[in-house]
Amino acid sequence: MDVLAVLTRLFSGAQAVGVQGVFQFEFGEGQAVWAAVAEQLEVRGGRHAAADVTIEMPAALFAGVLEGTQDVEELFARGELKIAGQLGLATLLPQIIQAARRGVAVEKPAATMNQRYPAQERPSDRLSAAQPALQSIERRPLASLSVDAFRRDYLAHGTPVVLSDALRDWPLFNMSREESIRHFAELKGITRHGDYAQKTFSTERDFRSTSIAEFIASLDRPLAPGESPPYMGNNLVPPQLLALIRFPEYFERSLYIKPRIWIGPKGTLTPLHRDDSDNLFAQVWGQKSFILAAPHHREALGTWSTSEGGGLEGCEVNPDQPDYVRYPAAREVTFHRIVLQAGDLLFLPEGWFHQVESVSTSLSVNFWVNSGRGW
Known about the structure:
- 18% of the residues lie in helices and 29% in strands.
- By secondary structure, the chain is an alpha+beta fold.
- The protein has two domains: 100 residues, Nonspecific Lipid-transfer Protein, Chain A, CATH 3.30.1050; 198 residues, Jelly Rolls (Sandwich).
- The strands form four sheets. The protein has a seven-stranded antiparallel sheet, with no helix packed on it. A seven-stranded mixed sheet has the order 7-8-19-14-21-12-11. A five-stranded mixed sheet has the order 3-2-1-4-5.
């Protein structure tokens, strides 16, 4: 494998997804290569004196990542890929790989990392605007909602619904915390620390590599005054744990994106934002509160994107303390507040804005879906 040529192809579209920095790759046996991504791309063999992030893995696994036979996040969770330096920058590696596979080319000046752009209208915005105003989020038992009824009454209209008593057949749901920790032994995840809520979607957040078992064992640690609780958010469910969960039957298995796991103590917060896929969110331990707003309120909420072509989308408006002087149209937004109990499953349609906070020590699993709805 010509590593220099491969890395040049890999990072040639990195500017298009707003990535800048020096990536150092170490493959063992003295083999190292670095890629400096800025207005120009520079790739060279050897070790860089001031790399922003260092990624260590065997060359054979790296080849598998590029071929699509190995998953970066799975390798990290299993300890076969090690990361040092700015983990926030390393979290963009999957996006870089996807861009390279799509053949993304830079046809305009490089995007600025962590810059905000106006969010574009989506089909889900128009679908939402055409629906009668939702008065509340319906809650119903899982057994009462067939697949056909779900697709007809909720999926087709982009309407959220909470399903109770939905995880009874999940081994993970039926385990005690102590029992589940044994299954997390030797697995790693990425945790967020410090003021991560105010740096949503930014590589400047304080990310750390942490043992999942040790993190869970530390969840009840008292916090210092003013200290934000750490959060193990948006980590891939490791292959070893897939047997402990169940994929909801509302979509064909082939449409599901690899599920994610979220673990944290009371007080962890993800500010108001929206995703680009339908989402089924399962509450395994504890309680989580959601504040929801319909997609057509995009402008009223001051929605911004991480890239001009559409990327991760956050909001300027804080639903708990709306600034009606700067965003007067936010007065017209209906914020729906719900609390997920252990065993609940929330269907969150693509485009719906949501702010999420742990009411208690919490473990959740979510399933994004390539449903193709509205696109």
